[in-house]
Amino acid sequence: METRIDRLGSVREDKIRQLKELIQESNNIVFLGGAGVSTESGIPDFRSGSGIYNSESGTKYRPIDIIAHDFFLENTEVFYDFYKRKLIYPDAKPNKAHKALVRLEKQGKLKAIITQNIDNLHQEAGSKCTIELHGSVFRNYCMDCGKKFSTEYVVAHDGVPHCDKCGGIVRPDIVLYEENLEHENVDAAIKAVKKCDLLIIAGTSLTVYPAATFAQFLKHDRIVIINKSSTYMDMKALLTIHDNVGDVLDQVVPKRVSKPKTSTAKKTTAKKTASKSTAKTGTKTASKSKPKTKKNDNE
C-alpha cells in the first residue's frame, strides 16, 4: 500500500528528473543565488528564524540597523565589532552547490552566476563567471586614499582598521543598506538574464531588490526555484523544489560528462587522415631524397 512518504518521495524524484532534462536541453543557463547557497558551508542566512537578523547582535542595536551606511559612518566601532563576529567566515569552504555550479560552467552550459552573497565561495570553488551584486568581505579599501587591503588585515586589527599608508578608515567593499548597487554589476546581471534559456533561482527568498525583479526580464517561463521556503515566484516558475540547494544541484549536475560518439568517430577519422597524409608525405620525402643521395655519391 502506497504511503504519503512514498508519494512525496516520488514527487521529489520526478522533479529532480525534470530539472536534469531542463539542464540537458539548455545551453545558456544563468544561476541567481542568495544566502541559502552558503548555509551548507556554515554561514547563516539573514531572514530565517536562526538567521543573522533574528540573532542577538551583542549590542543594543538591531543587526539590520548596524549594516547600514549611516550607522557605519556614525558608529564605526560598533559596526566593526558586529561585522567581524557575524559577517566574516574565513574558514568557510565551498559546498556541493558551489562545486556543482563549477562543473556546470566547465560543461559550457552555465554562462553566469549572479550572487547576493559576500563570501567569495563561488570564486574559491573555481567559478569564473560570477557577478557579485553586494560586493565581497574579501575586498577592503581605504576610504581616503583607496589602498586595498585583505580580510586578514581587517581581522588582525582591534576595533576600526586604519590604512597603513594615510591613516584613513578601511571599509569592506560590500553594499550596505542605504547604498546603491554598482550599475555595472546590475547591468551585467540583467544582460545575462535576458540572454539565458534557463534561469535557476536558488537559496533566496526573493525579497531583496533589485535581484527579486530580475526574472521580469525573461522572455520565457523557463524558471526553476530551489529554496527551502516559498517565494513569490513559486507559482510562476516552471519547476519549484523545496529542498537544500547543494543536495539538489549535486544530483542534477553530472560529475563526469561522457563525450558524444560523434566526437570519437571524428577522432578516428582524423587519425586515419593523419596516418594517410604521413604515409604520403613519407613517400614524397623518400622519392625526393633519392636523387639527393645520388648527387652526394657523385660528389
What does this molecule look like?
It contains ten helices and nine strands. The chain has 299 residues and is an alpha/beta fold. The protein has two domains: 4-252, 3-Layer(aba) Sandwich (Rossmann fold); 261-299. The strands form two sheets. It has a six-stranded parallel β-sheet, sandwiched between helices.
Short synopsis of the structure:
With 299 residues, the chain is of the alpha/beta class. It contains ten helices and nine strands.
Calculate Rg over CA atoms: 27 Å
- The coarse silhouette is elongated
Tally of distinct domains: 2
CATH class of the largest domain: Alpha Beta
Tell me the fraction of residues in β-strands, as a range: 5-15%
Secondary structure tally: strands: 9
What's the main sheet like? 6 strands, parallel
Assembly form of the protein: single chain
Class of secondary structure makeup? alpha/beta
- Spatially, the strands of the biggest sheet line up as 3-2-1-7-8-9
- Give the % helix: 40-55%
Unreliable segments of 5+ consecutive residues: 1-8, 262-269, 275-299
Helix tally equals: 10
On the 0 to 100 scale, the average pLDDT is: 85
Series of secondary-structure elements, N-terminal to C-terminal: HEHHHHEHEEEHEHEEEHH
Q: What is the CATH superfamily label of the largest domain? A: TPP-binding domain
Q: What is the CATH fold-level name of the largest domain?
A: Rossmann fold
**What would CATH call the architecture of the largest domain?**
3-Layer(aba) Sandwich
**How far is the N terminus from the C terminus?**
99 Å
